[in-house]
Amino acid sequence: MINVLMCLLAFMMAPANNSKYFLEKRSYEVRTMTESRDINYKETFEEINNSDCGFYYAEFYRLLPEGNVSPEFLENFSQLRLDISAFCSKYNGSDIPISEDALRCLDEMLTFIESNGQSAVIRFSYDSFYDGMDVKEPSIDMILTHQEQLGPILAKHKNAITCVETGLLGLWGELHGTDMCKKENLVAVVDKWLEVLPKSICVSVRTPLHYCWWKGIKRENISWDFSYYDEDSYRVGIYNDGYFGSASDLGTYSDRKEEVKWLFYQARHALFGGELMTINSLEEGQTYSSLIENEAFMTHTSYLNGLYSQVAIENLKTEIYNGNNKYYWGQTGYVFLRNHLGYRFVLKDVIMTEEVSLDDKILIRAVIDNVGFANLVKPKKLYIIFEGERYKYYIPVTEHKIIDDEYIINGDPVKWDSDTRVYVRVSMNLPNGIIPGNYKVYFKIAYSKTDVDNGNSDYPVRFANDDENIWNEDLGANYIGRMRIIKSRTEFDEK
């Protein structure tokens, strides 16, 4: 009884602004929240051309000492197979640095890709014309010199580069077939790529064995390996150019079960992909796509060659998918595989405060399914955009600090795991100086807030909803609902 009386006395003696706080707090807590009903929450079967994932198309280009001309057309997602054999002694009598003209051409090529919002996987090789017949690399010191020359140009266009495949050693740059493909050279080349490239670019090796060579672990212990965010190994992935070509993926795996177990964690943050081979081990009634899907969710497959093997691609285009995802039954295996390579976000539900005053906090709750095989590997940020008739306001969600009763839950899209439902919750103040009025509200997932006004130039992510109105091309953002902002509720009530 004494405690109750003391609490009541304390409340009565509290200053006026303290009681006002409780009034505003209570007002905020009962603010009406409404489901966004003008959104189709079903997934589309159409292709969504987001960056860094999907079927790619290989583009071959030979860099020469002089006379280089950059291509005038490239696909939305390419693998650039760049032949730099002209700068080693087998072809010109001595190992020489890459010429300024060749570096200029590479810069122009990547500028073209970036200016069109395209992306590319990069591989350099000394295999002349990528014919896989014979290759003699320069000395390891010259290879490292070439990497140091290439690094600044690749870093300049980091947003356009999905990953850099180690390359440089062996036939096709696939780390086999020459005396240079030995452990100490591989370690030196991978280390140099990690040194000269920004952290946002993954570096891929050909097999789990090469990863073990580089990291200095035993291959039989690979399933116990785990990389942390601040470690170099966090950004080392695999390019599997024997994808489903045999029981070992043409030598990719030694112990498939254990190495896939390792990839389940590693490929959440380091890219995995390659080339699909002709599959010769289908059981009765089994399709290419249904065989692939179970393991693809484990390896988090992000990209595959769109033309190779041609037999495998044609089989996918003619077969009818009959796998685990009933929603896709009746579609071709190609459509299923194409739509699940990499990340694929589908907005499943949104509720938000439909009317707020400048004294209130906005509250948004969104449900998002990542139905893709993989995560968003390259780091991007989530922004909330308020678009009115005259003004636009941007809130960088993932940079928001949690203070008092403001909070962000699942605000980092890199952590929206594949084959997982994510619940995004946002409670925060309105932007300073926002003008009262009616606003459309958007989620934008892109690289940086400095580029956020430039539509698609900052590589935004489009949701895969079956709704043509959800995507705003000019903003590069996904519509999630409407909100009305009024003046201070205290002033509003007094009037």
Brief write-up:
This protein is of the alpha/beta class. The protein has helices at 2-13, 16-29, 89-92, 100-115, 140-156, 183-196, 208-215, 256-266, 288-299, 310-318, 333-340, 489-494; strands spanning 33-35, 54-62, 77-83, 119-125, 161-165, 202-205, 236-243, 272-276, 303-305, 345-353, 355-357, 361-370, 381-387, 392-396, 407-409, 420-429, 437-446, 471-472, 477-486. The protein has two domains: 32-45 and 344-494, Immunoglobulin-like, CATH 2.60.40.770; 54-340, TIM Barrel (Alpha-Beta Barrel), CATH 3.20.20.
Write the layout of secondary structure elements.
Blueprint (H helix, E strand, L loop, with lengths): L1 H12 L2 H14 L3 E3 L18 E9 L14 E7 L5 H4 L7 H16 L3 E7 L14 H17 L4 E5 L17 H14 L5 E4 L2 H8 L20 E8 L12 H11 L5 E5 L11 H12 L3 E3 L4 H9 L14 H8 L4 E9 L1 E3 L3 E10 L10 E7 L4 E5 L10 E3 L10 E10 L7 E10 L24 E2 L4 E10 L2 H6 L1
Parallel strand pairs: 2-3, 2-9, 3-4, 4-5, 5-6, 6-7, 7-8, 8-9, 11-19
Antiparallel strand pairs: 1-10, 10-12, 12-16, 13-14, 13-17, 15-16, 17-19, 18-19
Helix pairs in contact: 4-5, 5-6, 6-7, 8-9, 9-11, 10-11
